[in-house]
Amino acid sequence: MRIDVVTIFPGYFEPLRHALVAKAVEKNLLEVYIHNLRQWATGNHKSVDDSPCGGGPGMVMTPTVWGPALDDVAAGTGPVSTACRLTSAAPHANKPRHDDLSGTGFSGYTDTAWIDPARGEAPCDGDKPVLVVPTPAGSPFTQEQARQLAAEKHLVFACGRYEGIDQRVIDEAAARYRVREVSIGDYVLIGGEVAVLVIAEAVVRLIPGVLGNATSHEQDSFSDGLVEGPCYTKPARWRGRDVPEVLLSGNHALIDTWRREQSLRRTLSVRPDIIDRLADDNALSTDDLEYLAQLADDAEHHS
Ligand code: ADE
Prior knowledge:
This is tRNA (guanine-N(1)-)-methyltransferase. Helix 1 links the parallel strand 1 and strand 2. The longest helix is centred in the C-terminal third of the chain and has 19 residues, at 252-270. The protein has 303 residues and is α/β, with parallel strands linked by helices. It has two domains: 2-217, Alpha/beta knot, CATH 3.40.1280; 237-301, Trp Operon Repressor, Chain A, CATH 1.10.1270.20. The protein has helices spanning 19-26, 63-75, 143-150, 167-173, 193-204, 252-270, 272-280, 286-302; strands at 2-7, 31-36, 49-50, 60-61, 130-140, 154-158, 178-183, 237-238, 241-242. The structure holds adenine.
């Protein structure tokens, strides 16, 4: 995969030079290019923003800078043709992980039909890169979208600042990109940079071959729609607290049932909306429903 990021704060992306993302770069599974938007700014002040049409507070990022920047990133022309590839801060390529199971046969994700026609998004056209525009006004970013982006060849991230990017930039970019306006949560950040770090990390860890243990993301929170239950390691007793006995039993059928129940219990507690949705979609098994009914019963007896 290739990732291009356009930003006025390239320094924000230093974290991509560390840990798992850097490892993906070292393994040649990922190329990352960070571009300073000001390279496309003209005039003495290299200004990238202007006052909002219609009045109001703050500044809006101008199409006259973003347009040429996104043209060059899509075509690999201008400053993009000589851009520096991000390198790992501390190479770990020759240090195999204890859980490296290369060759487990994981074949990647194939479902790339993440389009929202209601938002006027272009149909899936594999030749066009995906332009991800983080904005609090976007559709919520989910694990399912992370999975779909992980199957792409080329992602371009456009980091807005101030009040945002002139909407015509996003609308016009649909000629060269499949555009996704995404929000990472119901709160407002001061720019898209941190959101890009969040999205890039969620996506890169799902690129086949990036995680040492190819099965680890199959147990992630949200991979089956639920949040993950608690996890434990050794020692079996710590400060008077024991690891749940079932986890030391060696009985994997029992352990799977216990984990599913913990997952249901935690999801019901922190995200009851997810339980309601899965129930409406008939995505819960009879065992799941029985366990949830039992939890509701217990809650009633304790109140
Ligand atoms: N930019 C500012 N706030 C944001 C959010 N919540 N999600 C994505 N991008 C943003």
